[in-house]
Amino acid sequence: MAENPFDPVILSKIASMELRARLVVDGVLSGIHKSPYKGSSIEFLEHKEYSPGNEIKHIDWKVHARTDKYYIKEFEEETNLKCYIFLDTSGSMEYKSTGISKFEYAATLAASLSYLLLKQSDMVGLISFGDKVFQYIPPRSRITHLHVLLNAFTGLKPAGKSNIGVVLNEFIEKISRRSLIIIISDFFDDINKVIKQVKYFQFKKNEVILFHILDPYE
After folding, report:
1. Of 23-32, 43-52, 66-75, 179-188, where does mean pLDDT reach its minimum?
2. What is the mean pLDDT of residues 183-208?
3. What is the arithmetic mean of pLDDT over 63-68?
4. b vs e for 161-178, b when ≥16 Cβ sit within 10 Å of the residue's Cβ?
5. pTM for the model
6. CA 180 – CA 207 distance, rounded (Å)
């Protein structure tokens, strides 16, 4: 029987985060992903009230004539997928009974998904958090961005409490529509607040995937 690349015992024997990610992607995840936003086009999204710093060329003068206010047209580029990975870095993620900790397992999963998405020329960003945002790396699509993410994963140390609802709320206006939002956590939190924020992201036509990471002894 083939070994499971997701087996914590196997992963614990691989020191390099990059090698772990490649093992998981090449052994399990390869071929299951197809970006839903291939190609490139520009479409009108909505009007937004003008503020200093916005490009004047995007002012809608017809709306100004009707309202005597300045509004700009917001456009959305339909290109490959934009993904935001929320990685729980709170103290409870440090727990392990054998092999690797919940956080190491979660970070390996995040690295594997990043590797897969970047191979598809999709954009990947990272938000590590506890009761607040610890680190935010905006989405990029270049394969060299993988090393930025890997360095972040290996440098993170779980600490403190978790407050997923507050963290998600901070990004409601920052994340554009039709993005993929991945949350990796043990969800030792107020799950009702998490569900509320998830529904709001879904209302904005984002896809949300939750990975619930638990130790076998929990």
Report:
1. 23-32
2. 92
3. 84
4. ebbbbbbbeebeeebbee
5. 0.69
6. 5
Q: Which two tokens stand for residue 54?
A: 């916005």
Q: How far apart are CA 216 and CA 68, in angstroms?
A: 62
- Element housing 64 (H / E): helix 61-67
**β-bridge mates for residue 46, sequence order:** 74
Does 201 score more than 90 pLDDT? yes
Contact 97, 138 (CB under 8 A): no
State how far the Cα of 204 lies from the Cα of 82, in Å rounded to an integer.
14
- Give the three-state DSSP class for 45: strand
Say which residue the tokens 């984002």 belong to: 206
Average pLDDT over residues 176-187: 89
Pick the closest to residue 40 from 127, 136, 113, 121 (CA basis).
121
Please state, in angstroms and rounded to a whole number, the distance separating the CA atoms of residues 169 and 190: 14
- Neighbouring C-beta atoms of residue 103, cutoff 10 Å: 25
The domains found in the chain, sorted by start residue, are 8-35+81-212 (3.40.50.410), 41-78 (no CATH)
Residue linked to tokens 């709320």:
169
Pairwise pLDDT comparison (177 vs 126), residue with the higher score: 126
